[in-house]
Amino acid sequence: MAASSILRTDRRRQPNTPNSRSVGVPRTSAGQLGASYYSSGPLYRFEEPQTPFKVLILGGSYAGLSAALNLVDFCHGRKNRFSIDEADNGTGKVIPVQVTIVDPRDGFYHLIGQPLALSSQKFAEAFWTKYTDLAALQTPEIRTVQGSIETVDCASKTATITTAKGAIHESYDYLITATGLQREYPSAPRSLKREKYLAETAENLANVRDASKGVVVIGGGAVGIEIAAEINMLHPQIPVTLVHSRTRLLSSESLPDEFAARALEILHENKISTILGARVIDISEPQQITPDEHPQYTLTLSTGQTLVTSHVINAVSRFTPTAPSYLPNPESICDDQGYIRIEPTLQFVDDGSVPNAADHYAAGDVARWTGIKRAGAAMHQGHYAARNIHQKMMSRVYGTPPEFVELAEVEPGMGLALGKSAVGYFPSMGLQSGEETRELFFQGDLGFMICYKWMQLGTPMPKAVGVEKEAEKMIEKVVETEVEVEKVQI
Ligand SMILES: Cc1cc2nc3c(=O)[nH]c(=O)nc-3n(C[C@H](O)[C@H](O)[C@H](O)COP(=O)(O)OP(=O)(O)OC[C@H]3O[C@@H](n4cnc5c(N)ncnc54)[C@H](O)[C@@H]3O)c2cc1C
Protein backbone atom coordinates (compact mmCIF):
# COMPACT_ATOMS: atom_id res chain seq x y z
CA MET A 1 0.00 0.00 0.00
CA ALA A 2 1.26 3.45 -0.79
CA ALA A 3 2.23 5.68 2.09
CA SER A 4 -0.19 8.24 3.48
CA SER A 5 0.44 11.75 2.24
CA ILE A 6 1.18 12.86 5.77
CA LEU A 7 4.13 10.51 6.01
CA ARG A 8 5.28 11.05 2.44
CA THR A 9 8.70 12.56 1.90
CA ASP A 10 10.48 13.14 -1.34
CA ARG A 11 12.89 10.31 -1.87
CA ARG A 12 14.72 11.49 -4.95
CA ARG A 13 17.98 11.72 -3.07
CA GLN A 14 17.43 8.49 -1.17
CA PRO A 15 17.77 5.91 -3.94
CA ASN A 16 18.56 3.03 -1.60
CA THR A 17 15.52 3.36 0.59
CA PRO A 18 12.39 1.27 0.08
CA ASN A 19 9.38 2.95 -1.48
CA SER A 20 6.76 1.42 0.76
CA ARG A 21 6.91 4.09 3.45
CA SER A 22 8.05 7.64 3.35
CA VAL A 23 9.60 8.07 6.77
CA GLY A 24 12.27 5.83 8.03
CA VAL A 25 15.50 4.43 6.77
CA PRO A 26 17.91 7.31 6.73
CA ARG A 27 20.36 8.07 3.98
CA THR A 28 23.72 8.21 5.60
CA SER A 29 26.18 10.80 4.48
CA ALA A 30 29.77 9.95 3.81
CA GLY A 31 30.44 9.08 7.43
CA GLN A 32 32.71 11.46 9.25
CA LEU A 33 31.89 14.96 8.15
CA GLY A 34 34.75 16.78 9.81
CA ALA A 35 35.35 18.56 13.05
CA SER A 36 32.77 21.30 12.58
CA TYR A 37 30.00 18.70 12.75
CA TYR A 38 31.02 17.59 16.22
CA SER A 39 29.99 19.44 19.30
CA SER A 40 32.61 20.73 21.63
CA GLY A 41 33.22 18.88 24.91
CA PRO A 42 34.93 15.75 26.16
CA LEU A 43 35.25 12.99 23.57
CA TYR A 44 34.64 9.92 25.69
CA ARG A 45 32.05 10.05 28.41
CA PHE A 46 32.23 6.50 29.66
CA GLU A 47 34.42 7.72 32.50
CA GLU A 48 31.34 9.52 33.81
CA PRO A 49 28.53 7.28 32.60
CA GLN A 50 25.95 8.51 35.04
CA THR A 51 25.92 12.06 33.64
CA PRO A 52 23.04 12.15 31.19
CA PHE A 53 23.26 14.27 28.06
CA LYS A 54 20.80 17.11 28.37
CA VAL A 55 18.68 17.70 25.29
CA LEU A 56 16.29 20.62 25.23
CA ILE A 57 13.44 20.44 22.73
CA LEU A 58 11.40 23.55 22.06
CA GLY A 59 7.90 22.66 20.88
CA GLY A 60 6.04 19.42 21.60
CA SER A 61 4.22 18.77 18.35
CA TYR A 62 5.00 16.59 15.32
CA ALA A 63 8.67 17.57 15.01
CA GLY A 64 9.43 17.94 18.72
CA LEU A 65 7.76 14.70 19.84
CA SER A 66 9.28 12.72 16.97
CA ALA A 67 12.71 14.02 17.97
CA ALA A 68 12.21 13.27 21.67
CA LEU A 69 10.80 9.78 21.28
CA ASN A 70 13.21 8.59 18.62
CA LEU A 71 16.12 10.00 20.61
CA VAL A 72 15.15 8.05 23.72
CA ASP A 73 14.76 4.92 21.56
CA PHE A 74 18.26 5.43 20.19
CA CYS A 75 19.68 6.10 23.65
CA HIS A 76 18.01 2.96 24.95
CA GLY A 77 20.04 1.02 22.40
CA ARG A 78 16.84 -0.20 20.73
CA LYS A 79 15.56 0.01 17.17
CA ASN A 80 14.03 3.47 16.95
CA ARG A 81 10.32 3.81 16.27
CA PHE A 82 10.63 5.38 12.81
CA SER A 83 13.07 2.77 11.54
CA ILE A 84 11.68 0.58 8.79
CA ASP A 85 14.88 -1.34 8.29
CA GLU A 86 14.09 -4.94 9.14
CA ALA A 87 17.75 -5.68 9.81
CA ASP A 88 17.96 -2.83 12.33
CA ASN A 89 18.20 -4.10 15.91
CA GLY A 90 19.48 -0.91 17.47
CA THR A 91 23.00 -0.41 18.75
CA GLY A 92 22.51 -2.41 21.94
CA LYS A 93 24.40 0.38 23.68
CA VAL A 94 22.75 2.57 26.27
CA ILE A 95 23.44 6.29 26.63
CA PRO A 96 22.06 8.25 29.57
CA VAL A 97 19.90 11.11 28.33
CA GLN A 98 17.54 13.65 29.84
CA VAL A 99 15.13 15.23 27.37
CA THR A 100 13.14 18.31 28.30
CA ILE A 101 10.24 19.33 26.05
CA VAL A 102 8.96 22.88 26.40
CA ASP A 103 5.59 23.94 25.03
CA PRO A 104 3.06 26.59 26.08
CA ARG A 105 0.26 24.06 25.41
CA ASP A 106 -0.58 21.43 27.99
CA GLY A 107 -0.66 18.70 25.38
CA PHE A 108 -0.10 17.48 21.85
CA TYR A 109 -2.53 18.94 19.37
CA HIS A 110 -3.20 17.28 16.02
CA LEU A 111 -3.10 20.51 14.05
CA ILE A 112 -3.94 18.84 10.75
CA GLY A 113 -7.33 18.00 12.22
CA GLN A 114 -8.26 21.59 13.05
CA PRO A 115 -10.79 21.95 10.17
CA LEU A 116 -12.61 18.85 11.44
CA ALA A 117 -12.32 19.79 15.13
CA LEU A 118 -14.04 23.10 14.41
CA SER A 119 -17.14 21.20 13.30
CA SER A 120 -17.13 18.19 15.60
CA GLN A 121 -16.76 18.06 19.35
CA LYS A 122 -16.02 14.35 19.17
CA PHE A 123 -12.96 14.92 17.03
CA ALA A 124 -11.95 18.02 18.98
CA GLU A 125 -11.79 15.88 22.12
CA ALA A 126 -9.69 13.25 20.38
CA PHE A 127 -7.22 15.64 18.80
CA TRP A 128 -5.82 17.26 21.97
CA THR A 129 -4.12 14.91 24.41
CA LYS A 130 -2.46 16.28 27.50
CA TYR A 131 1.22 15.41 27.72
CA THR A 132 0.51 13.75 31.07
CA ASP A 133 -1.90 11.39 29.27
CA LEU A 134 0.47 10.37 26.50
CA ALA A 135 1.80 6.95 27.49
CA ALA A 136 4.97 7.28 25.43
CA LEU A 137 6.12 10.34 27.37
CA GLN A 138 5.74 8.75 30.80
CA THR A 139 9.36 7.73 31.10
CA PRO A 140 12.04 9.15 33.41
CA GLU A 141 14.14 10.33 30.45
CA ILE A 142 11.45 12.76 29.28
CA ARG A 143 10.22 15.80 31.16
CA THR A 144 7.64 18.24 29.81
CA VAL A 145 7.53 21.86 30.90
CA GLN A 146 4.49 23.98 30.14
CA GLY A 147 6.05 27.26 29.19
CA SER A 148 7.32 29.39 26.40
CA ILE A 149 10.91 29.81 25.33
CA GLU A 150 11.99 33.40 25.87
CA THR A 151 15.69 33.44 25.00
CA VAL A 152 18.38 31.04 23.91
CA ASP A 153 22.04 31.73 24.63
CA CYS A 154 23.94 29.58 22.14
CA ALA A 155 27.32 30.48 23.64
CA SER A 156 26.58 29.32 27.19
CA LYS A 157 24.02 26.75 25.97
CA THR A 158 21.31 27.93 28.31
CA ALA A 159 17.70 28.84 27.64
CA THR A 160 15.25 30.94 29.58
CA ILE A 161 11.71 29.58 29.72
CA THR A 162 8.71 31.50 30.99
CA THR A 163 6.26 29.41 32.96
CA ALA A 164 3.22 30.23 35.08
CA LYS A 165 5.46 29.87 38.14
CA GLY A 166 8.20 32.17 36.84
CA ALA A 167 11.29 31.92 34.69
CA ILE A 168 13.37 28.74 34.45
CA HIS A 169 16.97 28.70 33.25
CA GLU A 170 17.77 25.46 31.52
CA SER A 171 21.20 24.35 30.38
CA TYR A 172 21.63 21.84 27.58
CA ASP A 173 24.18 19.86 25.58
CA TYR A 174 22.01 19.86 22.45
CA LEU A 175 19.03 21.94 21.49
CA ILE A 176 16.34 21.10 18.94
CA THR A 177 13.96 23.88 18.15
CA ALA A 178 10.62 22.78 16.72
CA THR A 179 8.35 25.72 17.53
CA GLY A 180 6.66 25.77 14.13
CA LEU A 181 4.73 28.79 12.95
CA GLN A 182 2.58 31.12 15.00
CA ARG A 183 -0.79 30.52 13.32
CA GLU A 184 -3.88 32.54 14.04
CA TYR A 185 -7.31 31.14 14.78
CA PRO A 186 -9.07 29.39 13.03
CA SER A 187 -5.93 27.83 11.47
CA ALA A 188 -4.85 26.80 14.97
CA PRO A 189 -6.48 26.89 18.43
CA ARG A 190 -6.24 30.07 20.47
CA SER A 191 -6.11 28.25 23.78
CA LEU A 192 -3.15 26.67 25.50
CA LYS A 193 -5.13 24.33 27.73
CA ARG A 194 -7.28 21.43 26.60
CA GLU A 195 -10.37 22.46 28.56
CA LYS A 196 -10.34 25.99 27.14
CA TYR A 197 -9.71 24.69 23.66
CA LEU A 198 -12.78 22.42 23.93
CA ALA A 199 -14.88 25.41 24.96
CA GLU A 200 -13.51 27.30 21.97
CA THR A 201 -14.41 24.57 19.48
CA ALA A 202 -17.83 24.08 21.11
CA GLU A 203 -18.58 27.75 20.55
CA ASN A 204 -17.69 27.52 16.86
CA LEU A 205 -19.72 24.34 16.52
CA ALA A 206 -22.78 26.04 18.05
CA ASN A 207 -22.37 28.95 15.64
CA VAL A 208 -22.21 26.57 12.68
CA ARG A 209 -25.20 24.51 13.83
CA ASP A 210 -27.32 27.64 14.36
CA ALA A 211 -26.35 29.20 11.05
CA SER A 212 -29.77 29.31 9.44
CA LYS A 213 -28.46 31.78 6.84
CA GLY A 214 -25.39 29.67 6.21
CA VAL A 215 -21.68 30.05 6.84
CA VAL A 216 -19.21 32.11 4.82
CA VAL A 217 -15.58 30.97 4.88
CA ILE A 218 -13.12 33.62 3.75
CA GLY A 219 -9.88 32.36 2.19
CA GLY A 220 -9.41 29.70 -0.48
CA GLY A 221 -6.09 28.37 0.80
CA ALA A 222 -5.80 24.82 2.10
CA VAL A 223 -7.20 25.68 5.54
CA GLY A 224 -10.25 27.61 4.26
CA ILE A 225 -11.08 24.91 1.72
CA GLU A 226 -10.84 22.14 4.32
CA ILE A 227 -12.93 24.06 6.87
CA ALA A 228 -15.66 24.65 4.26
CA ALA A 229 -15.61 21.00 3.19
CA GLU A 230 -15.76 19.61 6.73
CA ILE A 231 -18.73 21.85 7.65
CA ASN A 232 -20.48 20.71 4.52
CA MET A 233 -19.86 17.03 5.29
CA LEU A 234 -20.88 17.16 8.96
CA HIS A 235 -23.71 19.70 8.65
CA PRO A 236 -25.08 19.18 5.13
CA GLN A 237 -28.18 21.27 5.88
CA ILE A 238 -26.06 24.43 6.36
CA PRO A 239 -25.27 26.34 3.15
CA VAL A 240 -21.54 27.06 2.87
CA THR A 241 -19.94 29.75 0.69
CA LEU A 242 -16.19 30.02 0.17
CA VAL A 243 -14.87 33.45 -0.84
CA HIS A 244 -11.35 33.81 -2.25
CA SER A 245 -9.64 36.97 -3.47
CA ARG A 246 -7.86 35.28 -6.38
CA THR A 247 -9.39 33.58 -9.38
CA ARG A 248 -7.62 30.31 -8.53
CA LEU A 249 -7.96 28.41 -5.28
CA LEU A 250 -4.71 27.62 -3.41
CA SER A 251 -3.18 30.62 -5.20
CA SER A 252 -0.17 30.85 -2.88
CA GLU A 253 0.82 27.18 -3.21
CA SER A 254 3.24 26.11 -5.94
CA LEU A 255 1.08 23.22 -7.06
CA PRO A 256 -0.17 22.38 -10.56
CA ASP A 257 -3.29 24.21 -11.79
CA GLU A 258 -5.07 20.86 -12.17
CA PHE A 259 -4.79 20.31 -8.41
CA ALA A 260 -6.66 23.56 -7.67
CA ALA A 261 -9.16 22.91 -10.48
CA ARG A 262 -9.95 19.43 -9.15
CA ALA A 263 -10.42 20.79 -5.63
CA LEU A 264 -12.87 23.37 -6.99
CA GLU A 265 -14.81 20.69 -8.88
CA ILE A 266 -15.15 18.58 -5.74
CA LEU A 267 -16.39 21.57 -3.73
CA HIS A 268 -19.04 22.21 -6.39
CA GLU A 269 -20.01 18.52 -6.54
CA ASN A 270 -20.75 18.87 -2.81
CA LYS A 271 -22.87 21.99 -3.37
CA ILE A 272 -20.42 24.36 -1.72
CA SER A 273 -20.76 27.79 -3.34
CA THR A 274 -17.58 29.58 -4.29
CA ILE A 275 -16.94 33.22 -5.12
CA LEU A 276 -13.48 33.69 -6.62
CA GLY A 277 -11.66 36.90 -7.53
CA ALA A 278 -13.50 38.92 -4.86
CA ARG A 279 -12.20 40.35 -1.60
CA VAL A 280 -14.35 40.88 1.46
CA ILE A 281 -14.01 44.61 2.15
CA ASP A 282 -16.55 44.97 4.95
CA ILE A 283 -18.33 42.81 7.50
CA SER A 284 -21.23 44.48 9.25
CA GLU A 285 -21.86 44.35 12.98
CA PRO A 286 -24.11 41.40 13.90
CA GLN A 287 -27.76 42.28 13.26
CA GLN A 288 -30.45 40.64 15.38
CA ILE A 289 -33.45 40.43 13.06
CA THR A 290 -35.81 38.41 15.29
CA PRO A 291 -35.22 37.51 18.97
CA ASP A 292 -35.23 33.74 18.21
CA GLU A 293 -32.88 33.86 15.26
CA HIS A 294 -29.11 33.79 15.26
CA PRO A 295 -27.73 37.27 14.46
CA GLN A 296 -26.71 37.80 10.87
CA TYR A 297 -23.89 39.62 9.11
CA THR A 298 -23.73 41.42 5.80
CA LEU A 299 -20.49 41.04 3.87
CA THR A 300 -19.57 43.52 1.17
CA LEU A 301 -17.24 42.22 -1.53
CA SER A 302 -14.81 44.17 -3.74
CA THR A 303 -17.07 43.33 -6.69
CA GLY A 304 -19.94 45.25 -5.05
CA GLN A 305 -21.80 42.02 -4.29
CA THR A 306 -23.22 41.59 -0.77
CA LEU A 307 -23.75 38.36 1.15
CA VAL A 308 -25.95 37.82 4.19
CA THR A 309 -24.83 35.02 6.49
CA SER A 310 -25.20 33.78 10.06
CA HIS A 311 -21.55 32.94 10.68
CA VAL A 312 -18.25 34.13 9.21
CA ILE A 313 -15.00 32.17 9.48
CA ASN A 314 -12.00 34.17 8.40
CA ALA A 315 -9.50 31.56 7.26
CA VAL A 316 -7.17 33.87 5.38
CA SER A 317 -3.84 32.29 6.20
CA ARG A 318 -1.92 34.42 8.69
CA PHE A 319 1.22 33.07 10.27
CA THR A 320 4.54 34.29 11.52
CA PRO A 321 7.75 32.36 12.10
CA THR A 322 8.44 31.83 15.79
CA ALA A 323 12.25 31.61 15.99
CA PRO A 324 13.13 35.32 15.64
CA SER A 325 11.36 36.07 18.93
CA TYR A 326 13.73 33.94 21.03
CA LEU A 327 16.96 33.44 19.08
CA PRO A 328 19.86 35.74 19.98
CA ASN A 329 20.76 37.06 16.52
CA PRO A 330 17.93 36.07 14.20
CA GLU A 331 19.30 38.14 11.34
CA SER A 332 22.16 35.67 10.97
CA ILE A 333 20.47 32.45 12.14
CA CYS A 334 17.26 32.96 10.14
CA ASP A 335 16.57 33.79 6.52
CA ASP A 336 14.81 37.00 5.51
CA GLN A 337 11.41 35.43 6.24
CA GLY A 338 12.35 34.29 9.73
CA TYR A 339 12.92 30.59 9.05
CA ILE A 340 16.00 29.02 10.65
CA ARG A 341 18.69 28.28 8.09
CA ILE A 342 19.74 24.66 8.48
CA GLU A 343 22.30 22.31 6.98
CA PRO A 344 20.95 19.09 5.43
CA THR A 345 21.90 17.51 8.79
CA LEU A 346 19.41 19.93 10.45
CA GLN A 347 22.11 21.80 12.37
CA PHE A 348 22.02 25.56 12.32
CA VAL A 349 24.14 26.80 9.42
CA ASP A 350 27.64 27.21 10.76
CA ASP A 351 28.97 30.38 9.17
CA GLY A 352 30.93 31.49 12.22
CA SER A 353 28.27 33.88 13.50
CA VAL A 354 26.59 31.43 15.90
CA PRO A 355 28.59 29.92 18.78
CA ASN A 356 28.16 26.14 19.03
CA ALA A 357 26.04 26.11 15.87
CA ALA A 358 26.73 22.37 15.51
CA ASP A 359 24.89 21.63 18.77
CA HIS A 360 21.75 23.50 17.68
CA TYR A 361 19.17 21.87 15.45
CA ALA A 362 15.87 22.99 13.92
CA ALA A 363 13.12 20.67 12.65
CA GLY A 364 9.67 21.13 11.16
CA ASP A 365 7.92 24.32 10.12
CA VAL A 366 10.39 26.51 12.02
CA ALA A 367 13.21 25.51 9.67
CA ARG A 368 13.89 26.61 6.13
CA TRP A 369 13.69 23.63 3.82
CA THR A 370 12.26 22.92 0.40
CA GLY A 371 8.71 21.68 -0.15
CA ILE A 372 5.38 22.69 1.36
CA LYS A 373 5.36 22.77 5.17
CA ARG A 374 3.78 19.51 6.28
CA ALA A 375 3.48 17.38 9.38
CA GLY A 376 5.07 14.41 7.62
CA ALA A 377 8.13 16.48 6.87
CA ALA A 378 8.16 17.74 10.46
CA MET A 379 8.14 14.20 11.92
CA HIS A 380 10.81 13.12 9.45
CA GLN A 381 13.02 16.06 10.36
CA GLY A 382 12.55 15.48 14.09
CA HIS A 383 13.66 11.88 13.56
CA TYR A 384 16.75 12.92 11.61
CA ALA A 385 17.74 15.53 14.17
CA ALA A 386 17.50 12.86 16.88
CA ARG A 387 19.52 10.43 14.84
CA ASN A 388 22.33 12.88 14.18
CA ILE A 389 22.51 13.95 17.81
CA HIS A 390 22.63 10.31 18.85
CA GLN A 391 25.53 9.75 16.45
CA LYS A 392 27.43 12.51 18.23
CA MET A 393 26.65 11.00 21.62
CA MET A 394 27.80 7.57 20.43
CA SER A 395 31.00 9.12 19.20
CA ARG A 396 31.64 10.77 22.55
CA VAL A 397 30.66 7.84 24.72
CA TYR A 398 31.78 4.84 22.70
CA GLY A 399 34.18 6.43 20.22
CA THR A 400 32.26 5.19 17.18
CA PRO A 401 32.74 7.27 14.03
CA PRO A 402 29.50 9.18 13.48
CA GLU A 403 27.43 8.65 10.36
CA PHE A 404 25.06 11.51 9.78
CA VAL A 405 21.85 11.47 7.79
CA GLU A 406 20.92 14.33 5.51
CA LEU A 407 17.59 15.68 4.39
CA ALA A 408 16.75 15.30 0.73
CA GLU A 409 15.35 18.21 -1.25
CA VAL A 410 11.54 18.04 -1.40
CA GLU A 411 9.32 19.08 -4.29
CA PRO A 412 5.93 20.62 -3.52
CA GLY A 413 3.16 18.12 -2.86
CA MET A 414 -0.03 18.12 -0.82
CA GLY A 415 -3.05 16.12 0.25
CA LEU A 416 -6.23 18.13 0.71
CA ALA A 417 -9.22 16.71 2.56
CA LEU A 418 -12.55 17.61 0.96
CA GLY A 419 -15.21 16.10 3.19
CA LYS A 420 -15.71 12.50 2.07
CA SER A 421 -13.29 13.04 -0.78
CA ALA A 422 -9.72 14.33 -1.10
CA VAL A 423 -7.34 15.49 -3.75
CA GLY A 424 -3.65 14.75 -3.64
CA TYR A 425 -0.62 15.67 -5.67
CA PHE A 426 2.92 14.46 -5.21
CA PRO A 427 5.49 14.42 -8.01
CA SER A 428 6.00 10.68 -7.58
CA MET A 429 2.29 9.82 -7.89
CA GLY A 430 0.76 12.67 -9.87
CA LEU A 431 -2.77 13.92 -9.27
CA GLN A 432 -5.38 11.71 -7.68
CA SER A 433 -8.71 12.31 -6.01
CA GLY A 434 -11.81 10.64 -4.63
CA GLU A 435 -12.89 8.68 -1.58
CA GLU A 436 -10.00 6.23 -1.89
CA THR A 437 -7.59 9.13 -1.89
CA ARG A 438 -9.14 10.42 1.30
CA GLU A 439 -8.86 6.99 2.89
CA LEU A 440 -5.26 6.66 1.81
CA PHE A 441 -4.19 10.13 2.89
CA PHE A 442 -6.35 10.87 5.90
CA GLN A 443 -8.49 7.84 6.79
CA GLY A 444 -11.62 8.94 8.68
CA ASP A 445 -10.04 11.39 11.13
CA LEU A 446 -7.88 13.78 9.10
CA GLY A 447 -4.82 11.67 9.68
CA PHE A 448 -4.99 11.63 13.47
CA MET A 449 -4.43 7.92 13.98
CA ILE A 450 -1.82 7.84 11.20
CA CYS A 451 0.29 10.34 13.15
CA TYR A 452 -0.57 8.98 16.59
CA LYS A 453 0.38 5.44 15.63
CA TRP A 454 3.44 6.46 13.65
CA MET A 455 4.82 8.32 16.67
CA GLN A 456 3.53 5.51 18.96
CA LEU A 457 2.17 8.10 21.35
CA GLY A 458 -0.19 5.67 23.05
CA THR A 459 2.44 2.99 23.70
CA PRO A 460 4.49 3.09 26.90
CA MET A 461 8.20 3.61 26.28
CA PRO A 462 9.98 0.25 26.40
CA LYS A 463 12.93 -0.04 28.75
CA ALA A 464 16.53 0.34 27.64
CA VAL A 465 18.12 -2.87 26.34
CA GLY A 466 20.31 -3.51 29.37
CA VAL A 467 17.50 -2.67 31.73
CA GLU A 468 15.28 -5.19 30.00
CA LYS A 469 17.97 -7.85 30.42
CA GLU A 470 18.52 -6.84 34.03
CA ALA A 471 14.78 -6.99 34.65
CA GLU A 472 14.59 -10.43 33.03
CA LYS A 473 17.47 -11.60 35.21
CA MET A 474 15.74 -10.21 38.30
CA ILE A 475 12.48 -11.94 37.35
CA GLU A 476 14.38 -15.19 36.81
CA LYS A 477 15.98 -14.76 40.24
CA VAL A 478 12.63 -14.07 41.90
CA VAL A 479 11.09 -17.13 40.22
CA GLU A 480 14.07 -19.26 41.29
CA THR A 481 13.77 -17.97 44.86
CA GLU A 482 10.02 -18.66 44.88
CA VAL A 483 10.68 -22.22 43.68
CA GLU A 484 13.28 -22.64 46.42
CA VAL A 485 10.81 -21.29 49.02
CA GLU A 486 8.12 -23.65 47.76
CA LYS A 487 10.56 -26.58 47.98
CA VAL A 488 11.43 -25.61 51.56
CA GLN A 489 7.72 -25.35 52.46
CA ILE A 490 7.02 -28.75 50.91
C1 LIG B 1 -5.43 23.57 9.33
C2 LIG B 1 -4.15 22.89 8.90
C3 LIG B 1 -4.21 21.72 8.16
C4 LIG B 1 -3.03 21.06 7.79
N1 LIG B 1 -3.11 19.90 7.07
C5 LIG B 1 -1.99 19.19 6.82
C6 LIG B 1 -2.06 17.91 6.17
O1 LIG B 1 -3.13 17.47 5.74
N2 LIG B 1 -0.92 17.21 6.01
C7 LIG B 1 0.27 17.66 6.47
O2 LIG B 1 1.27 16.94 6.36
N3 LIG B 1 0.38 18.88 7.06
C8 LIG B 1 -0.72 19.65 7.24
N4 LIG B 1 -0.63 20.88 7.85
C9 LIG B 1 0.69 21.42 8.19
C10 LIG B 1 1.18 20.82 9.49
O3 LIG B 1 0.19 20.96 10.48
C11 LIG B 1 2.47 21.48 9.91
O4 LIG B 1 3.42 21.35 8.88
C12 LIG B 1 2.97 20.82 11.20
O5 LIG B 1 2.09 21.13 12.26
C13 LIG B 1 4.38 21.26 11.55
O6 LIG B 1 4.77 20.61 12.71
P1 LIG B 1 5.81 21.27 13.71
O7 LIG B 1 6.01 20.28 14.80
O8 LIG B 1 6.99 21.75 12.97
O9 LIG B 1 5.10 22.59 14.24
P2 LIG B 1 3.70 22.77 14.98
O10 LIG B 1 2.81 21.63 14.76
O11 LIG B 1 3.21 24.13 14.60
O12 LIG B 1 4.09 22.78 16.51
C14 LIG B 1 4.88 23.76 17.09
C15 LIG B 1 4.80 23.58 18.59
O13 LIG B 1 5.67 24.55 19.20
C16 LIG B 1 5.00 25.18 20.25
N5 LIG B 1 5.56 26.52 20.42
C17 LIG B 1 5.30 27.64 19.72
N6 LIG B 1 5.98 28.69 20.23
C18 LIG B 1 6.72 28.22 21.27
C19 LIG B 1 7.63 28.81 22.18
N7 LIG B 1 7.92 30.11 22.16
N8 LIG B 1 8.19 28.01 23.13
C20 LIG B 1 7.90 26.68 23.19
N9 LIG B 1 7.06 26.08 22.33
C21 LIG B 1 6.47 26.83 21.39
C22 LIG B 1 3.54 25.18 19.82
O14 LIG B 1 2.67 25.31 20.94
C23 LIG B 1 3.40 23.83 19.13
O15 LIG B 1 3.03 22.80 20.02
C24 LIG B 1 -1.78 21.59 8.18
C25 LIG B 1 -1.73 22.78 8.91
C26 LIG B 1 -2.89 23.43 9.28
C27 LIG B 1 -2.83 24.72 10.07
TrEMBL record:
GO molecular function: electron-transferring-flavoprotein dehydrogenase activity; flavin adenine dinucleotide binding
The protein, known as: FAD/NAD(P)-binding domain-containing protein
Region spans: Disordered: 1-28
Pfam families in UniProt: Pyr_redox_2 (PF07992)
GO cellular component, one term: cytoplasm
Transmembrane segments: none
PANTHER family: APOPTOSIS-INDUCING FACTOR 1, NUCLEOTIDE-DISULPHIDE OXIDOREDUCTASE AMID-LIKE, PUTATIVE (AFU_ORTHOLOGUE AFUA_1G17180)-RELATED
Domain of life according to the entry: Eukaryota
Residue ranges occupied by any FAD/NAD(P)-binding domain in the UniProt entry: 53-382
Gene3D superfamilies: 3.50.50.100
